[in-house]
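Example 9 (inverse folding). The structure is encoded as follows.
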C-alpha cells in the first residue's frame, strides 16, 4: 500500500485536457497517471542521496509519500487536480 500526499504538479496541458473533457481528478490519475512520469520506491535511508543525484542530472525529484503496510492493498493519493483524497482498494 502507499500514501502519496505530495505528488508533482500535473503539466498545464494535462490540467487543460481534464478541464476540456470534464475528467475528474481520479480519472486523470487512472488514465494519465496524473503526469507523474515515474515513481521510484526507495528506503527512507536512501532517499536523500537519490534526491541529490537527481539534482546533479537536472531531474526534478521529491519525496511524494510513503509505503504503508495494510491488510488489504490500498493506494491513497492527494489529487493535484482538485485537492481531493483519492483511494483505490
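The amino acid assigned to each position is listed next.
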Amino acid at each position: 500500500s502507499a500514501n502519496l500526499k505530495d505528488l508533482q504538479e500535473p503539466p498545464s496541458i494535462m490540467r487543460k485536457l481534464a478541464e476540456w473533457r470534464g475528467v475528474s481528478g481520479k480519472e486523470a490519475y487512472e488514465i494519465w497517471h496524473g503526469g507523474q512520469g515515474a515513481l521510484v520506491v526507495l528506503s527512507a535511508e536512501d532517499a536523500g542521496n537519490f534526491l541529490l543525484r537527481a539534482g546533479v542530472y537536472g531531474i526534478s525529484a521529491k519525496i511524494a509519500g510513503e509505503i504503508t503496510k495494510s491488510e488489504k492493498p490500498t493506494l491513497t493519493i492527494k489529487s493535484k487536480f482538485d485537492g481531493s483524497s483519492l483511494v483505490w482498494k
